[in-house]
Amino acid sequence: MSASRPQAWHEALHRLQRDGLPHALATVVTSAGSTPREPGARMVITADAIHDTLGGGTFEFQVIDSARERLASGTLGMSLEAFALGGRSGQCCGGFVNVLLEIFPGSAATLAIFGAGHVGTEMVRLAAPLPWRVLWHDSRDGVFPDWAELQPRLTCRHPADSRAAVAALPVNSHALVLTHDHAEDRELIDALLARGDMASIGLIGSKSKRASFRSRLKDAGHDDAALATVRCPIGTASGGTGGDKTPYAIALAALAELLPLVGTHERADQRGLDPAELRQIFN
């Protein structure tokens, strides 16, 4: 496929869902009078791109603006937008259109892994089938395997500054720290705790490493409540308790610990559209 060819909505939808990127799907569900497109017309909208069209004009720009407002605010799920093309949209068609907006958050969670050693590599392999966005960091050059470039939802980063790398993480990321250097580990944990908005923080190491880090981080100004949020050792179902200490086993146990911590985007009060609203539209 040529990189310059615009993507149809279904191509874009497949790519964005495969890569775990936030996007909106807009569908014309009803129309009356003269309208740019018929029911069933769709377009896909992201924060910085659009794919396909609902007919153009002010009406389409309003749909795009509405979708981007929801994407920016994290308002997930479905909503219906009504457009009177001679009123709200100021177009000469004079028709009336209802558009269904479906907001998809992208990946179910963001996992930030610091360290591309044996355990980090196994974690990335194991996380591949999960609907998570993975941000893989290592300050060393040439450490990421060739296959990493082909893995969806995976971004490899070579941060020159640990604190800058932490500052760039999305809010509510799950962070796992397992670099080749204890000083770098400690700086990363310090920066992660200072942010105060991570969903979870894990640190590879022994109980003695945890005690040493705890003492130094407390001296750096972190209180007991904050320090208690750092899981160390990670993977206590295996290597942390004297069991299987192979990289694969530790990575498997560490990811298993994360599963109950990773929430879903579904809310009990967001299960589609209100039936009364649908009846009013389609009757």
Q: How much strand?
A: 15-25%
Multimerization status: single chain
Judging from the principal axes of the Cα atoms, what is the shape? elongated
Number of domains: 2
Structure classification:
alpha/beta
SSE string, helices as H and strands as E: HEEEHEEEHEEHEHEHHEHH
- Most strands sheet: 6 strands, parallel
Report the strand count.
11
Taking the alpha carbons of the first and last residues, their distance comes to: 43 Å
Structure notes:
With 283 residues, the protein is of the alpha/beta class. The protein has helices at residues 9-19, 57-73, 118-127, 162-167, 182-195, 207-219, 224-227, 247-258, 275-282; strands at 23-32, 42-45, 50-51, 77-84, 96-104, 109-114, 132-137, 154-157, 174-177, 200-203, 230-231. It has 2 domains: 9-105 and 265-282, no CATH class; 109-261, NAD(P)-binding Rossmann-like Domain (Rossmann fold, 3-Layer(aba) Sandwich). 34% of the residues lie in helices and 21% in strands. The chain has a 6-stranded parallel beta sheet, with helices on both faces. It has a 5-stranded antiparallel beta sheet with strand order 3-2-1-5-4. α3 crosses α8. It comes from Halomonas korlensis. Residues 111-258 form the XdhC Rossmann domain.
